[in-house]
Design brief:
The chain is of the alpha+beta class and about 375 residues long. Helix content is about 40%, strand content about 20%. β6 and β7 (about 150) form a beta hairpin.
Amino acid sequence: MHTSLTPTALAELREPRPYPAVSLTLPTDRRAPRNAEDSVRLRNVLAEAERRLDRDPGVTRAARDAIRAQLTAAVDETDLARALDGLVVLAAADEQHVYALPRAVPERVVLSETFLTRNLVAAYAAQRPYWVLSLAADRVTLWSGSGRHVTEATAGGFPMTRSPDNTDTEREERIGDTPSTFRDEEVRHFLRDADAALHSVLRQDPRPLYVTGEDAALSLLADAGTATATAVHIPHGGLAQGPPEAVVRAVAPARAAQGRRETEEAVGALDEARGRRAFAGGVDEVWAKVSDGRIHRLVVEENYRVTVRSADDDHLVPAEDDDPRARPDIVDEIVEKALDTGAQVVFVPDDALADHDRIAAVLRY
């Protein structure tokens, strides 16, 4: 069961599959006793998927048997003790994937030519993923962060290590000291290699970057390379070995400050856009603009969810969850479509958009 996403994984999941690609989504709960219902929900959506496979004349017996086997394997892999706020199970004839999401999703079963990825895409955007590069003279570690969690990343050849050279005893005898660790030319080359590797990672998966290390290490990296030019430098050594909890604590103040700046800037841009009539606010108006590809920047409150349906005039109106025409994940649809059309998506704290109907956008034209 996966608890993290990457742009590469999302791109692969969005590729077309031979029909049917089966997607199951359901809300889950992190805490007892409410999480006791999670296993019941999972059994229910699995049973509904099997009924649809049985009734669908477009599904061959061989495909049905293969997908059932993949669904069984997916359920066996699912550890509901590690469940977060939503669960997504994807299965085709020769593959299965399970994702625990820190974001609520509706309960549904979909058979299509593609997996249902809107909830995954929105969850990835809402996680605000980031990188942390931790420096030491003999090790450079890349951490993949999301919220209050980081894990050691192995992308781009990280972690990078080197064996410290033996002390030059003749030099010690001549001069009476040893060179500073971060004035050593071998360390300079080591950090230059790390900078080159980081460039490759950022090309594949651009994220905000934080760099931790002693002042001398941060200075040497700045001189040796360019990948960290826009990074936030945090003078805190000893984190190349972790533990992850210490890395999270070290970067938390910088992340909080950056989050406040991003929120202020996003809300200010909405106010400016309203003044020049390049603004859309509320789920109905934003949906219309994103469907036309007109959104430059979408701003959404982190926990905003709303269930709607399409009225006869194609406008979206509030709906109950049990309405057969309901669209309970319309916010995730909007986020996915905005990203598909090249828009920037910014999540802000709850109530930050109280004056803008919880979701708003700056328009391209």
